[in-house]
Amino acid sequence: MKLLVTGGAGYVGSVVSAQLLEAGHEVVVLDDLSTGHEDAVPEGARLVRGTLRDKASEVLAGAGFDAVLHFAAKSLVGESVQKPWLYWDGNLGESLSLLDAMRTAGVRRIVFSSTAATYGEPETTPIVETAPTRPTNPYGASKLAIDTALAEYARLFGIGAVSLRYFNVAGARLTGSGTSGAGDQGERHAVETHLIPNVLKVALGEKDAVSMFGEDYPTPDGTCLRDYIHVVDLGVAHLLALDACAPSTHQIFNLGSGSGYSVREVVEMCREVTGHPIPAEVSPRRPGDPAVLVASAEKIRTALGWKPERDLRVMVTDAWTFLQGR
Ligand code: UDP
């Protein structure tokens, strides 16, 4: 298939682009490089630099694309609370431009990176796709609005859309065996908020200690539980979702493993993998963090036959190899 990957210079988008190329697809990446990296775009993909608003219709018009995989987004929860307009415009506004460009060019399929943040604070766990959607920040709200727009475009214009609601993505895609080299893809955020890369930065000597945000949650060890999945497993789900797009239908799948690890367990795993003592200090809760966010992975397993193959140890090992090679 001929595929447009928006945000293909970012962490998840670049990994999935490489997997799509490996599966024999033709890939064009559209990315404004505001947070992505030109050298993360895999060899074999063509990069068009620009925003969706400026470039999507020009790229798609008359070019015979079969589908779009839409990763381009702003994704910092804290920033979204400070500057919500950046998220309404940057996520929803830009996505509407993309959908309109698809409609005009006759591109009929889209796989979209949605998020567990669309659910907000869960009433019951694990979270099923029919759970109430009550996002607690503009990031989650803007992604939920895009899910709604996709449902409308499916109903009104017959496109086939799949929203994959990511839980916690981790790990890296390594091209060598055990040592990081050119072509490896992993997390390289200018502002790093995620747990695993922040813990590993201590082992790398870039930070003295990791902060664990809160130890008084109603969980077995008092720290938050999250559902981590390996970025390569996540990519596999995108390839399956692409094939599962059905005309006039918007499908939603959670993308998680169905089980959680605590912040303490993640820190401990990082100690085991790196052999570094990794000092950890407890700091106050981070506002807006639910105690437990774990996906029900039942729907995607049944409908697409997807299940994660790589556990927390593999995620941490691959992220560590990637970081050491940078
Ligand atoms: N966390 C932490 N220290 C950090 C970063 C994150 O204790 O330096 C905690 C955070 O409070 C949450 C979990 O780790 O409970 C996962 O956070 P992350 O930002 O990686 O993902 P989120 O679940 O917010 O999408």
Plain-language structure description:
There is one protein chain. Helix 5 links the parallel strand 5 and strand 6. The strands form 4 sheets. The chain has a 7-stranded parallel sheet with strand order 3-2-1-4-5-6-11, sandwiched between helices. The chain has a 3-stranded mixed sheet with strand order 12-9-14. Strands 7-10 form a two-stranded parallel ribbon. The protein contains 10 helices and 14 strands. The chain is globular and about 55 Å long. Helix content is 38%, strand content 18%. The mean pLDDT is 96. By secondary structure, the protein is of the alpha/beta class.
What's the topology here?
Layout: E1 2-6, H1 11-22, E2 26-31, E3 46-49, H2 52-60, E4 67-70, H3 77-82, H4 84-105, E5 109-115, H5 138-157, E6 160-166, E7 168-170, H6 195-203, E8 210-213, E9 225-226, E10 228-230, H7 231-244, E11 249-255, E12 261-262, H8 263-274, E13 280-283, E14 292-293, H9 298-304, H10 312-324
Parallel strand pairs: 1-2, 1-4, 2-3, 4-5, 5-6, 6-11, 7-10, 8-13, 9-14
Antiparallel strand pairs: 9-12
Bound molecules: uridine-5'-diphosphate.
Uridine-5'-diphosphate (UDP) is lined by residues 168, 193-195, 198, 210-213, 224, 226, 263, 286, 289.
